[in-house]
Structures are given as structure tokens and as C-alpha cells.
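Let us work through a complete example step by step.
Step 1: write down the sequence.
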Amino acid sequence: MRTYRIPSEISTELKINKALYLFDLLFIIGLIVFRMIVLPFIHSSFTWYFTIFLVIFGGFMLIRPSGNPQKRMYHAIYYAMIRRKDAYSAIDYKGRENHDAT
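Step 2: predict the structure and record it as C-alpha cells.
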């Protein structure tokens, strides 16, 4: 009979080194491929500006916001765009310090 080891946690991201995750590496490779595909459509005098823009854009999208370090900046931007602006929800204080006015 075969025995299978089931990992206790599958949501952890795979780290390549101390600061680089697998998704970050794939995102950078995707930006490089995107640059190579789009570069023939960019005027030759703007190629360096376009490359610098992609480096800044890629770095900005991969940083982790201080308010939610589990997500990246593109998650925060996406959630800000799709959230309902006319809906409000109460803040749940359970599990925090006692904030009662008594």
C-alpha cells in the first residue's frame, strides 16, 4: 500500500533566495519578454526611456505594501479598483484590545 505525504501548508510562496520569490522571478521574465515583443513598435529614440519605465513599473508592482505584507502592490491596486465605493462595513474589534467606552 502506498503512503502519501500531504503537506501541512500549501499557501506559502516559494523563495528562490532571501528577497526573491518564484512569482517575482516569473514576473520579471514576463516583463523582459513583453519588452522584447513590444520593442519593434517603439521609436528607437525612446527605447531607453521605455526600458527604464518597465524597470520602475516592475519594481513598483512587486513591492509589498506595509499595510498588508502578504499581498503585492498590484493586489492593492486591483482591490482598490473593484471595491464598492458606496458600501461601508463595520470594523470588527474582536481579538483586539478592549475598546469599550465603559
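Step 3: interpret the result. Residues 1 and 33 are 46 Å apart (CA to CA).
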